[in-house]
Write a structure and sequence with these properties.
The radius of gyration is 19 Å and the shape is elongated. The model is unreliable at 1-12 and 209-213 (pLDDT under 50). 69% of the residues lie in helices and 0% in strands. Helix 1 (14-29) packs across helix 2 (36-43) and helix 5 (87-100) packs antiparallel against helix 11. It is mainly alpha-helical. Residues 35-54 bind DNA.
Length: 213
């Protein structure tokens, strides 16, 4: 998932400040290494305020995943990749848009829910399920364009719009892991370039557009 827009909640909005703090700190350190004390310090709230809003650190993790899904859904709904009239162009524009976001510090463009899902999928089913709902829910937003592109180009095979939409997220999440492992955003860019080529091949689209003489 992406780098959603940063908000500046009113100082009295302790719950939102804690969720924003969780987004930043967990992407940098991971869920296990992030302490309640650190979240409170980053959000500038008391520990009593934390437990007023969240009964546990795990409850904060679930809420953070849900907050991430909400903010990123709004972010992607207004993104420019929706502009092309051709549905396949919209899918390719989506891949290009995701690649363009992979810049700066790793913690700023990697995915909160992907990070938490990898870390706590076995130890915290509630957080895992919230992360899964976010990732798969985002994948579902691509299905209509993929399905329309398949219909227009009479593409049929052993795959569906839903499975290709999920595959885009597998590549993107894997790209984040490679970027972290190699400490190099270029590794993520490479993966997105391959995803672009793969989609073009599936739809019989030329890998390189050539200008007419």
């Amino acid at each position: 998932m992406p780098r959603p827009p940063k908000h500046a909640p009113e100082r009295g909005d302790a719950r939102t400040r804690l969720l924003e703090a969780a987004r930043e700190v967990i992407r940098t350190k991971g869920f296990t290494a992030t302490s309640v004390d650190e979240l409170c310090q980053r959000a500038e709230v008391t520990k009593g305020s934390f437990f007023h809003h969240f009964k546990s650190k795990e409850a904060l993790g679930v809420a953070a995943a849900e907050h991430w899904a909400e903010t990123t859904s709004a972010f992607f709904a207004g993104a420019p990749y929706h502009a092309p009239s051709d549905p396949l162009e919209r899918v390719l524009a989506y891949v290009a848009f995701r690649k363009s976001m992979m810049a700066g510090d790793l913690a700023e463009f990697t995915c909160l829910v992907g990070t938490m899902a990898q870390e706590v999928h076995a130890s915290s089913p509630d957080i895992r399920d919230a992360c899964g709902a976010s990732i798969l829910g985002h994948a579902a937003t691509l299905e209509a364009d993929i399905d329309a592109a398949m219909t227009e180009r009479r593409i049929a095979g052993g795959w569906t719009a839903r499975s290709l939409a999920r595959h885009t997220q597998a590549v993107i999440q894997g790209a984040f892991v490679l970027a972290k492992a190699g400490n190099d955003p270029a590794l993520a860019h490479e993966s997105l370039d391959h995803l672009d080529r793969y989609i073009r091949l599936l739809f019989g689209r030329p890998l390189q557009e050539k200008a007419l003489p």
